[in-house]
């Protein structure tokens, strides 16, 4: 048998290795920005064209490289970060594998200009598919300029799998924000197609958070700090009332490196237990400083996963730090043992003159003036001799006998929906209960409808149809409203501009990360349009991370969820009947798009058992 195992050609091995490090333009951005941070830069510029497919350029004023180092940095496993095996256990830099530049050069055309501090001339190096095309001296300021052009030019299959420009740009924004948050002492700027997207001056962490996410975050941040011999926690958490439906604005940094950890996220959520609205997630930016030898970051090429030597202790400290911050800022109940406990004595309750409860003999009512007892039709215990003694026990302790054929509360089947709809619309009066539920008599018993869930189902099918036909109706605002968004949300709404227009939104760009809203969908109550759009984008992003549905259905779900939460309150008889009719006209009337029940039927047998009949 002939030998079949052979070494791969170097260019093919490089492309395979690049597939682990360079997955999309955002991967290149991450590696280049982290290299600038390691080079001790004080100012970093990121320039993007065509969502990184045409150009990714990073300009920094860091240490720069000599002519030899510039050539060596494109070799695989060549790095300045570690020298011995022991260095792996005390890593403080962002990069250390020596793979990033070699991987990028394997799948792109790279030009690097660099000048080390204290030298007169810099070096210009051009590399294409890991082959050096030219190397020559160049005059330039101290620092490094790296330009990555035509990403995946030699791997067309990988280039074809890239998403649309707005999607890729959102991933680039995410990586840019993470590096910028981790290094507030460095000035960062982002330019997309020669337009400035973000300009972040050097400053404090709180200033960097406000610069990235918006001025409103200044009010909702609470500082968090805890120092122990094992671990130091610092950063900011968001107040519970500002929690959002999506997890997007949650950041953990370990030794200034962004990581993803469901375990630590659970620690934060546990500290917020009982304070958050249902299905809401808090904002937090937390930095953990820990001895490098107690963690392992050499788990995955992206270096976003990490292993702790004692993760239980880390969990407990993070949870305690967040809980303490909530107490210190009077967000959660706390005991202050240093406070004065001499409470003011209780004062007797004072009633108005018309409410005199004096029971002295002088004011006691006479027998003649006492009102006659009201006649009652209730049967006493003596007159119910044939009744079981258990009837007079409290309801919680009394067992209601059940018949063998008794059915539980259930949903209508699809076959029953048409028959029930006919019986509902046959003249039965609809009643509203606590402005949340509708009750209507049907042939088999009592139909109960969740008002908000029914609205969500009706609106979902309406919006889904409008998006398919591009036929949404709009109502013009008397006074157009300006909405300032975060860069990520602005990028997302411009990506979905056509779908928003189909729903009935009318808006246009109005400066940097700002839109002006001139119209909203016709059936949406006129209220805070900014809250509506921000909530809609938030719900869309939440669905994006938890559901595998197309863009149209995702937006229809998000819109139905947000608008139905506004359509609450008292309904007229006509509105209640119309709501029930519209629900049964839906293709799937029994459930909301997320699977929540919209209606329940109580059978006559069950109602009779409740009254022991």
Automatic annotation (TrEMBL):
Keywords: Coiled coil, DNA damage, DNA repair, Endonuclease, Hydrolase, Nuclease. Residues 530-557 form a coiled coil. One of its GO terms (molecular function) is endonuclease activity. Residues 429-571 form the MutL C-terminal dimerisation domain. GO terms for cellular component: mismatch repair complex. SMART domains: DNA_mis_repair, MutL_C. Residues 209-327 form the DNA mismatch repair protein S5 domain. The keyword Zinc does not apply. GO terms for biological process: mismatch repair. InterPro entries: DNA_mismatch_repair_MutL, DNA_mismatch_S5_2-like, HATPase_C_sf, MutL/Mlh/PMS, MutL/Mlh/Pms-like, MutL_C, MutL_C_dimsub, MutL_C_regsub. This protein is involved in the repair of mismatches in DNA. It is required for dam-dependent methyl-directed DNA mismatch repair. May act as a 'molecular matchmaker', a protein that promotes the formation of a stable complex between two or more DNA-binding proteins in an ATP-dependent manner without itself being part of a final effector complex. Belongs to the DNA mismatch repair MutL/HexB family. This is DNA mismatch repair protein MutL. It comes from Nibribacter ruber.
């Amino acid at each position: 048998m002939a030998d079949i195992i052979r070494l791969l050609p170097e260019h093919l091995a490089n492309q395979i290795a690049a597939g682990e490090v360079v997955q999309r333009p955002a991967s290149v951005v991450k590696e280049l920005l982290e290299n600038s941070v390691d080079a001790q830069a004080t100012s970093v510029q990121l320039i993007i064209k065509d969502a990184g497919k045409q150009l990714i350029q990073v300009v920094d004023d860091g240490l720069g490289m000599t002519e030899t180092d510039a050539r060596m940095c494109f070799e695989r496993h060549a790095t300045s970060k570690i020298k011995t095996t022991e260095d792996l256990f005390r890593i403080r830099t962002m990069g250390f594998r020596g793979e990033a530049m070699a991987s990028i050069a394997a799948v792109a055309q790279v030009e690097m200009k660099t000048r080390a501090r204290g030298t007169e001339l810099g070096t210009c190096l051009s590399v294409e598919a890991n082959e050096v095309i030219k190397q020559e001296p160049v005059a330039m300021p101290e620092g490094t300029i790296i330009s990555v052009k035509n990403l995946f030019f030699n791997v067309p299959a990988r280039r074809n799998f890239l998403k649309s420009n707005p999607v890729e740009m959102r991933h680039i924004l995410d990586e840019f924000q993470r590096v910028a948050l981790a290094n507030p002492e460095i000035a960062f700027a982002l330019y997309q197609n020669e337009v400035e997207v973000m300009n972040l001056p050097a400053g404090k962490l709180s200033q960097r958070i406000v610069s990235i996410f918006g001025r409103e975050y200044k009010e909702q941040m609470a500082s968090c700090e805890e120092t122990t011999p094992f671990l130091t926690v610092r950063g900011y958490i968001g107040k519970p009332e500002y929690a959002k439906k999506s997890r997007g604005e949650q950041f953990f940094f370990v030794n200034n490196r962004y990581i993803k950890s469901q375990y630590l996220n659970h620690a934060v959520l546990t500290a917020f237990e009982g304070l958050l609205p249902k299905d809401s997630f808090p904002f937090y930016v937390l930095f953990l400083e820990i001895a490098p030898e107690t963690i392992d970051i050499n788990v995955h090429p992206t270096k976003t996963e990490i292993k702790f030597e004692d993760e239980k202790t880390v969990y407990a400290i993070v949870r305690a730090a967040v809980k303490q911050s909530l107490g210190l800022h009077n967000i959660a109940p706390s005991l202050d043992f240093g406070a004065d406990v001499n409470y003011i004595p209780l004062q007797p309750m004072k009633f108005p003159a018309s409410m005199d409860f004096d029971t002295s003999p002088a004011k006691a009512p006479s027998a003649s003036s006492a009102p006659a007892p009201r006649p009652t039709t209730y049967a006493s215990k003596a007159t119910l001799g044939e009744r079981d003694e258990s009837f007079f026990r409290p309801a919680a302790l009394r067992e209601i006998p059940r018949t063998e054929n008794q059915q539980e509360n259930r949903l209508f089947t699809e076959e029953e929906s048409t028959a029930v709809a006919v019986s509902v619309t046959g003249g039965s009066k609809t009643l509203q209960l606590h402005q949340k539920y509708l009750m209507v008599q049907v042939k088999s018993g009592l139909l109960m409808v969740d008002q908000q869930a029914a609205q969500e189902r009706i609106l979902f099918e309406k919006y889904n149809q409008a998006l398919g036909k591009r036929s949404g109706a709009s109502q013009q605002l008397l006074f157009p409203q300006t909405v300032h968004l975060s860069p990520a949300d602005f990028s997302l709404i411009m990506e979905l501009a056509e779908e928003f227009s189909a729903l009935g939104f009318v808006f246009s760009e109005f400066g940097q990360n700002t839109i002006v809203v001139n119209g909203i969908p016709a059936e949406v109550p006129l209220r805070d349009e900014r809250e509506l759009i921000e909530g809609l984008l938030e719900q869309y992003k939440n669905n994006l991370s938890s559901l595998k549905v197309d863009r149209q259905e995702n937006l229809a779900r998000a819109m139905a969820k947000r608008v139905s939460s506004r359509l609450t309150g008292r309904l007229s008889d006509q509105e209640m009947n119309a709501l029930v009719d519209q629900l049964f006209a839906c293709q799937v009337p029994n459930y909301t798009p997320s699977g929540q029940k919209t209606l329940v039927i109580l059978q006559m047998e069950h109602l009779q058992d409740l009254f022991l009949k």
